[in-house]
Structure formats: C-alpha cells, structure tokens
Amino acid sequence: MTTRIAPAAMDDVAARAQTLRRDIDEHNHRYHVLDAPSIPDAEYDALLRELEAIEATHPELASADSPTRRVGGKPFGGFAQVRHDTPMLSLANAFSDAEVGQFVRKIRERLELGDDAPLRFSLEPKFDGLAIALRYEHGVFVRGATRGDGETGEDVSANLRTIKAIPLRLRGGDVPALLEVRGEVYMPRAAFEKYNEGARASGGKIKLLVNPRNGAAGSLRQLDPAITASRPLAFFAYAVGVVDGLDGHHALPPRHSQLLAKLRDWGFPVSSLVATASGADGCLDYFRRIGAQREQLPFDIDGVVYKLDDLRLQRELGYVGRTPRWALAHKFPAQERTTTVQDITVNIGRTGAATPVANLSPVFVGGVTVSNATLHNADQVARLDVRVGDTVVVRRAGDVIPEVVAVVLDRRPERTTAWVMPTHCPVCGSAIEREEGGVVARCSGGLACPAQRVRAIFHFASRRAMDIDGLGERLIEGLVEFGFLQSVADLYALNLGDLLEMKRRADERDGTTPETVKDGKIASKWADNLIAAIAASKHTTLERFLYALGIPEVGQATAKALARHFGRLDALLRADATALLEVPDVGPIMAAHIIAFFAEAHNRDAISQLRAAGVTWTQAQPQREPRGALAGQTFVLTGTLSTLARDAAKEKLEALGAKVAGSVSKKTSVVVAGEAAGSKLDKAHELGVEIWDEARLLAVLAEHGLA
Ligand code: IVH
User: pTM, whole model, 2 decimals?
Assistant: First the structure.
C-alpha cells in the first residue's frame, strides 16, 4: 500500500529534496573541487542520509543527478562501447628545449607570423592518469567514457559518478544543451601510498599497485562501482570535446585559458598550476618552474603541455595525423623504466646486513644510467617475486637509490626460479643468519669479513666520524685486498711506502699504467696528503670516536648523548644495561647492541690499538641529564584543574622529566582531565590512552615532593 500524501505536503517534500540536493552538491564542490570544506563531515553525512530517506520513501522524487546516486549497481556484461563524437587525440611529445623551439617556429611559419609577433600559450601540467570524456545534457551528467583507442572507449559512467570531484550537475545559469568535458582521472599520491600500506599489511591478499597511474586505471575498470568508490580518485578538466546548443551570446570564449576558467565556473576542478606565457621562452620557463615543484606535488605529472591559447588559430592550424599542430607535451625525463634483471647478488654492509641487489641491463632513468637497483631485503624479493631474467620496472625518485618496484609478469621467460637468500656470505663464506623476528639477514663474519671490514673502515674515515680526507672506498678496498689493513687501527701504522706499494699492485692487477709526473717519477702527492690526513685525524672528540666505531644502531645523535653522559670512554666501557638506560634516548635494544659490541674481544682490541696509536680526544666531565620519575612519558592537560594552575602543573610534570604536549595522539602516555574536559578527553578514550583525574595527579606530585 502506498501512502497518500496531500499535494501540498508532497510539494514540501519535493522542495526539501531539491534543497538537499543543491546543498549537498555545493558542499561536494567546496570539499572536492575548491578544497575548502565549510561544514563538518558529520553534518554532510546527515544531509545525505536525509535525502536518501526521502528518495527511499518517494521513489518518484529520485533523479539521475542526485548525489545519492554516486554509488550505483554493477553494469551487466562488462562495459558498453562508446563511440566518441570527436576523436580523443594524443599529443606530440618533446624531450628537449630545441624541440620546443621548433614547435613554436613551425606555428609561426604556418600562420605566417613574424619572429616577434606575440604568441600566447596556455600552459598546463601533464597529469599522469587516465583520459576520460564526460557528457552533460542540459547540465546533467549522463555518461562518461575512457579514451580507449581514441575513436571508441568504454562506458565507465557508474564508476565516474563515484568520483566526488566530478560534478553530477553543472553550476551556474549558462549551461549548454550538450557539453563534453575532457580531462584526467588520477589517484593522488597520498591515496596511492595509503592503499599500498593496506596491501602490504594484507600479507599478499591485496595486490600492490605499481604506481598511481595504474591505480587510477585499475580503479576505473572495476566492474563494481563500490570498489571504485573506495579508491579515492580525483579529476582535472583540461579541454572541451563538444559543445552544442549555446545561445548566440553564450558562444565559447575565444581563448583556451578562458575556456578553462569557464570549466572552473561550471564546477570542474582545474589545476591551480595552469598559466599562460608568450613564446618558446615563456614555455621553457614554465617547464622548469613546474619541474622544480614536481616532487612536492600531491599528484604525479610526467611533463607539461603547451597549447596555443587562441582557439581560432588552433582551428586554422588543425592536425597532422592524430596529433594537433597547436599543442605539445614537453616530457620530463622518465623516472620509471623497464629493463631486465641479469643477476641478483647480495651486498654486505658495514654491520653485515645482506641486501639483495638486482644487476640490471643498464637503463637511463630520471637522468642517470642505472645498472644496479636495491631490492631491500629477502621479503621484498619474495613479495615482488623478482627472478633472474625478469623484466622489471625500475624507479629513481630524486636522489634516492634506484629501486625495483614491479615485475612485468607477461614478459617472464620460461623456466625461471624464485630467488632465495644464499646461506653463506659471498665475500667471506661465513653463515648468513636472519635476526629473529626481523627482516634483515646478516653475514656472521664480523670484521673477519673483508666486505664488512671495507665498509667499517670507510665509515670510520667518513666526514662526520674521524674525517680522514681522501680515504675513499676504492683505496680502502685495495688496502684490505693486499693485506695492508686488517682493522681501523692499522690505518695509523700506514706509511708512504705502503700506500705506493698498494697502488703499484692494484695498477698491475688492473693493467693500468701508473700516473707519472716529471722524469718518470710516480705521482705520489695523493699519498702524502692521505698520510697527513690520517695523522691529523688522531686528535678528535669522544663523540666522533664513538660514532666512528660503527656500533650497530648508534648514530651521531646517540654517540653525542653517550659522550655527554659518560664523559669518558672507560666509564662507557664499564656501563651495564641499567647505566645505559639512563642515557636520554637509549632504549633496551640499543643498550643491548652497545653491550654486545664492547663485549667482543676484537672490538676491545681495536679500541686499545687506536689509543696506543695515539688517537686521543679532549676529556670532559660527564653531563648527566636528570632522568626524572616520569622521564620518557608525554602528558596532555585538559579541562580546568581546581587546585593547580595549568602552567604550574606543566612545570611540575616537566620537573619530573615528563614532556607536556598540547594534543592527544597515540604517543600520549597520560591525559590529565580536569573539569569540563572536552574533545581531548574523547580522543584519549578513543585511543585508549591512560586518563588521570586531578586527585591522581596531585598524589603523584606529592609522592615526589612536588605537591
Ligand atoms: S590535452 C588534443 N592536456 O595526455 C589534445 N592532455 O597524449 C588532447 N594529458 O591521453 C589532450 N594532461 O590523458 C591534454 N593538460 C593536459 C593533459 C593531457 C595529461 C594526457 C591525456 C592524453 C595524453 C595526450
């Protein structure tokens, strides 16, 4: 039985639904397009629920452009084919300044313009996502399609509706009868990272996305729009495909840059990075400016696009084949490339950590030739299932070490085998052992392993440690290989003859001719300098010395804290776990590493030898920082305390070694809640943080004589 509603009341409901739709659209636009939300999420949800309730009881009021329709049903039998009204073309690419110059010159020639006639370009980022076309009839979104082969794409309307940055209804009064907007669907980097974090935690159940572009493409091709809705995709508009039915006075503006502004008015997101400039120089300036920001942008781009701004001139120039003569994509050097894995070897680090490394057919990525890429650890190799012979995607971001990010499984040759970590160190033959519960495998050879010895000596000599100028890794390798260096202490026994002898043997082995100066004399200035640098390093600080020793887990900051706290090396050598735990920032794991390091006979020997060789540092008095009863704990004060001013409470807590912070997080140890405590107390409950009332605080303060 249907409920009969009086016509007047029905009008009210219809009007309410209309208002709700308009308001929800407005909030969506503010949130997803303008990035400036004006109401809390909870209020937005309440509006949406109210509208859903109305539409459920009055199906006759439902409409296709309702914001409740963003997640719809699954299309039957896959995606329908859509023929584009005008083909979706591609852009010609340029990789150099010269090609950009040529592009602009050719336009001038074709348009018979002089060299200095101004030529304006609309400048845009080249978004790295998926091109789509959105069709609006009388201002309402009716269909969206992928680019496909340019002529025919797939109808992915249901999935596009879930993207909140895409308006379901155009804003403003002057909407054309038919409008097709083109642009790029993309996955913001943060969303991509978050997705992969979840995938990693799923233990293989959810597959990792290779990059944000694949993330966007894969999400749009989901048959279930609910899955697309769960992947935060975004959109940028950059062109108009078809417009029809505009009144004469509403004809499109004459410039592309104005068209973009119009799209913005209609409610589409247009990147704030779009700009205009004149001539090739203006284009190249833009390319460099955007290139410099690239790493910081919240989305991936792979270059910039130059479009002649004057739409009439665009039409005059037309197309060659499938690319417009009036536009050009200027690409950044690729930062991801595919290549093949020739071998997977193991690199032994300073503390014996065995890192698998892919030896690659050299490939030019992001401006450098890469022939090795880290695979991090055995778990990562297993996760990616990288095998010798595989084609892999190699990424190099900024100055970060190149890494293998994915395997192209389609190109895997026959008869490959999964990689396993060798059981023995490839350098010294000692067993490789995996730390219990950890991901790191280590060579157990310690300093008997030449690889570890080279790395340890290199670290010892590095700038922030003993600062021995001129002692590079290759020199150390030679000195270790030919038996001149067993341990760091041997450095101080080296003389000029040793260095030259090592060099002679290395030249002989490599078949290189020794560098000579006048009269056939062998060049030896480098050796003189090195001997002087070694001698100069003898006087140092305890902090540098401790850091130079290369104790696992002990970086510069900890070395400094240990030096300050103990003042003298002997005091540190005698320290047990309890004593070490008193040092700020030293926890149980680090304390265990320190004790284990000093317990090793060869480490103690090396220290004695270094001292005997004359390594010294200025002696200092220990500077113990008071470690109060509440050291290491973070407190948050909220609400009003009746007997204690908040500042006084803060001071007293700090006197007991606690940190007092302003907001509650997972790191908070205790929240002290006074009268009328609000959201911080809620947050503490939510996170399960310990909560004290004022009485408890006073009791603890009293216990330590601070009441
Ligand atoms: S304009 C006729 N503008 O690049 C020109 N394309 O090779 C139509 N793209 O598949 C494209 N950012 O996905 C244009 N600001 C931008 C773009 C852009 C990315 C992509 C687009 C297309 C490809 C063209």
Answer: 0.53
